[in-house]
Specification:
With 311 residues, this protein is α/β, with parallel strands linked by helices. Helix content is 37%, strand content 22%. The longest helix has 25 residues. Bound molecules: zinc ion.
Length: 311
């Protein structure tokens, strides 16, 4: 059987899986990402997890390569991290592809972790069978990817999919994590939803989005307003993107997608308030693969390539 290694390399956790051509995860291993020990330790962890997964595979399994979805902006041509967030100190400039290819003696491909997540959902999750898939995830931040015919549109600099950094009326000029202001992420991310709640309620102790959702469900009007604002803002942006891109399906994932019916109802209202009548039936669906999505998408990178053109 042919399979590939998929790696989901985040700032706090590294997860590795052995994935079939059909997107089935045969085996998994994970460990905390040793981010504070530097890029060498981070890649050592990937290598040991990958070896553990390969070592446990059936003897007739042919491992065709290793795909990596890594935090940060990635130059996929070179397999190098272009820029990184504070969660992985010193990560920028890391030659992820070359180091892993030498250690594992396998072809390696590297993309951004959000792009890997979207590719997994598009190929083997909620977007399976669709040609053009728009994936949007809202959690700590807001981002996603456009996947066309099984390929992520990465953009000239690999930055495509930063849907959290488009103008949003609901954000009302609030400062954004990117240094700008009035962006969607400044109202629709989990931390932003908490900030809105703290302002409205005057209660400075709430720092967890799940607590805002719990209070909303218990009838707290400030909680309900904060959750609805976050959902509606995201929905309006999705509606605008549907008009601009006309995807076959929109997949909504991330931690906030588990926020319940109040958030989803506001999101659907937001979508419907923006999208053109011609696009009223574009499906807006929840993600299907859960935590496996990035592993499955990363593995699909090398399965698709068949090892050609990879290091
Ligand atoms: Zn921004």
């Amino acid at each position: 059987m042919r399979a590939a290694i998929g790696v989901d390399l985040g700032g706090t956790k590294t997860a590795v899986g052995l994935v079939t051509e059909g997107g089935v995860v045969l085996a998994r291993a994970s460990a905390p990402t040793p981010a504070s020990n530097g890029p060498g330790a981070v890649l050592d962890t990937v290598v040991s997890l990958a070896r553990a997964v390969i070592g446990g595979a059936e003897v007739d399994t042919i491992v065709s390569g290793c795909g990596v979805g890594a935090a940060g902006v990635i130059d996929s041509e070179l397999g190098v991290v272009t820029s990184a967030t504070d969660s992985l100190p010193g990560w920028a400039g890391t030659r992820v592809r070359d180091v892993l290819a030498a250690e594992l003696e396998l072809p390696v491909a590297v993309v951004n972790d959000v792009h890997a997540h979207a590719l997994g959902e598009a190929l083997h999750g909620a977007g399976a069978g669709s040609g053009t898939v728009l994936m949007i995830a809202a959690g700590t931040g807001v981002g996603g990817a456009l996947v066309v015919d099984g390929r992520v549109h990465a953009g000239r600099r690999g930055v495509s999919g930063h849907f959290g950094h488009v103008s949003s009326i609901e954000a009302d000029g609030r400062p954004c994590t990117c240094g700008g202001a009035g962006h969607l992420e400044a109202v629709a991310s989990g931390p932003a939803m908490c900030a809105v709640y703290r302002e409205r309620s005057g209660d400075p102790t709430v720092t967890d989005g799940r607590e805002v959702v719990r209070r909303a469900e218990a009838g707290d009007p400030h909680g309900q307003a904060s959750v609805a604002l976050a959902g509606r803002a995201l929905g309006r942006t999705i509606g605008g993107l549907v008009n601009a891109l006309d995807p076959d399906v929109v997949i909504v994932g991330g931690g906030l997608a588990a926020a319940g019916e109040l958030w989803w109802a506001a999101l659907r209202d937001g979508v419907d308030s923006e999208r053109m009548a011609l696009l009223a039936d574009t499906p807006i669906v929840g993600a299907a693969l859960g935590a496996d999505a990035a592993i499955v998408g990363a593995a699909a990178l090398v399965i698709q390539a068949g090892g050609e053109g990879l290091a």
